[in-house]
Amino acid sequence: xxxxxxxxxxxxxxxxxxxxxxxxxxxxxxxxxxxxxxxxxxxxxxxxxxxxxxxxxxxxxxxxxxxxxxxxxxxxxxxxxxxxxxxxxxxxxxxxxxxxxxxxxxxxxxxxxxxxxxxxxxxxxxxxxxxxxxxxxxxxxxxxxxxxxxxxxxxxxxxxxxxxxxxxxxxxxxxxxxxxxxxxxxxxxxxxxxxxxxxxxxxxxxx
Length: 207
Ligand SMILES: C[S@@+](CC[C@H](N)C(=O)[O-])C[C@H]1O[C@@H](n2cnc3c(N)ncnc32)[C@H](O)[C@@H]1O
What we know:
Elements: E1 18-24, E2 27-33, H1 45-53, E3 63-67, H2 73-81, E4 86-90, H3 94-106, E5 112-115, E6 126-131, H4 139-150, E7 153-164, H5 169-179, E8 182-189, E9 192-198
Parallel strand pairs: 3-4, 3-6, 4-5, 6-7
Antiparallel strand pairs: 1-2, 7-9, 8-9
S-adenosylmethionine (SAM) binds near residues 6, 7, 68, 96 and 117.
């Protein structure tokens, strides 16, 4: 269940720390959560689906991005699966960032870098981007967010997004295709779509 408006910089709801388990074939973590962040009671089903059905992340000393990291289930999983990568865990929500940092440290994952959006150095290009994106911020804000970060993919980089069908996964995919990113539906189950999105060759206004 979501608790309050979790996509603000500083949640107004009082803190009430708790924990959830993240169990995957290759990951067994207990994660700290709190009120005022996304999916405090359990790891979100869409997030779990992304982590189960997404592709193996790239190997080597690459930069990876968890866009909208929340308390860090995606960032921590990527860091376990790619020990040589640097995993950027980005969120506007300060409480979420603190939890993500705590969870990465507790799991001994020194390759997670938790950052506010403006703290990620401009020159860094991501080999892949993973996200359960914040659809509820509204279409215009979501488009701005994706535009900002999809253009930080390396030229052969790919994004992997999980989006609920009833929250507009198909129209979001069409919008990304129209803007020059190439979208492929990797999987679809129980109302969720997993979208693979390739870096665009040129920005629309440059074509
Ligand atoms: C659907 S939640 C997913 C959280 C986490 N990845 C998970 O799977 O549990 C989306 C996250 O995006 C964050 N978010 C909202 N707007 C953002 C923005 N402009 N930049 C970065 N993160 C943002 C929210 O605070 C929230 O934590």
